[in-house]
Amino acid sequence: MMVRILFYCFAALAITAATAVITSRHPVRAVLSLVVAFIATAGIWLTLQAEFLALILIVVYVGAVMVLFLFVVMMLDIQVEARRAGFVKFWILPTLCGIALILLLASVLGPHLQGTQMAANLPDPHSSLSALGMALFSDYIYPFELAAVVLLAAMIAAIGLTHRPRARTVRTQNPSEQVKVQPHDRLRIVKMPTSKKEGIA
Amino acid sequence: MITLSDYLIFGVILFGLSLAGIIINRKNLIVLLMSIELMLLAINTNFLAFGHFAHSIMGQVMVFFVLTVAAAEAAIGLAILVVLFRNKRSIDIQHLTELKG
């Protein structure tokens, strides 16, 4: 019963925050609402006994991805007034479509699955973390490494997209040229004919 | 106790909200990216619910990989957004008409 109350509280919080994400006029407020939605959903994942993923959601998503969003939102200088000029014109049809989708899927998912009760604890004495680790590092080791490659590719792509090479006017050192330098590049001995000193005697 | 359909309906509501958000926001690209994140969150909740009620760990494994790909997608999307803003001085979707699509 306690879990059920918690579930409904977290669900209401998440849905309210998600509504605030798509309707708030200021992007910073939208990002903060998304943080609230993520934390509430992490609570719902806890009721599903997915402790590790719930904490990953908070640490990685709220801690890293949402902070990245906040950085980008604050870095870009967006005109707040001009941003939402087209907002009011378009909201009726999408809202009706969204409500229709929600009602359709809820009517499909609701009655048929009514009998499926909350499962008891997982049958084995291990927590779901050890089971997840066993699955990830035995059966799913190649997808796991592939996920690492995906992250590496994303990192390289993000750096390559946003990196600006320095302007040519900036004076820089070239270490390989400096190492390869030979004495005759730096010192040139010129033979000249000597001349008698003239002038005041 | 909490039934499977409770979780599924919660996921459906989140998904429908984010879908409406994508259609509503004709202006701001950042809100579009955030709606996609919300969609992935709803999908992940469905995966976890099915996995939990099927007594299987595979739902959690799937959510793990979806989270990885979603993080990569957010990073690249925001990088593209920064480059776009640098070139056009705006992130208005109405101005993205180079491809004449």
What is the mean pLDDT of chain A?
83
Overall 3D shape of chain B: elongated
**What sequence of helices (H) and strands (E) makes up the elements of chain A?**
HHHHHHHHH
Q: What fraction of residues of chain B sit in β-strands?
A: under 5%
Give the number of DSSP strands of chain A: 0
N- and C-termini, Cα separation of chain A: 117 Å
Radius of gyration of chain B, taken over Cα atoms and rounded to an integer in Å: 17 Å
How far is the first residue's CA from the last residue's CA of chain B? 50 Å
- Tally of separate helices of chain B: 3
Write structural notes for this entry:
The complex is a heterodimer of chains A (201) and B (101). Chain A has 9 helices and no strands. Chain A has helices at 2-23, 27-47, 51-75, 80-83, 92-112, 128-137, 141-162, 175-179, 183-186. The longest helix of chain A has 25 residues, at 51-75. Chain A starts with a helix and ends in a 15-residue tail after the last helix. The relative contact order of chain A is 0.05. With 101 residues, chain B is an all-alpha fold. In chain B, α1 (4-24) runs antiparallel to α2 and α2 (29-53) packs antiparallel against α3. The longest helix of chain B has 31 residues, at 58-88. Chain B is elongated, with a radius of gyration of 17 Å. The model of chain B has no long low-confidence stretch (mean pLDDT 87). At the A-B interface, α1, α2, α3, α5 and α6 of A face α1, α2 and α3 of B.
SSE layout and pairing:
The complex is a heterodimer of chains A (201) and B (101).
Chain A: H1 2-23, H2 27-47, H3 51-75, H4 80-83, H5 92-112, H6 128-137, H7 141-162, H8 175-179, H9 183-186
Helix pairs in contact in A: 1-2, 2-3
Chain B: H1 4-24, H2 29-53, H3 58-88
Helix pairs in contact in B: 1-2, 2-3
Give the gist of this structure:
Chain A has 201 residues and is an all-alpha fold.
Attribute tags:
heterodimer; A: 201 residues; B: 101 residues; mainly alpha; elongated
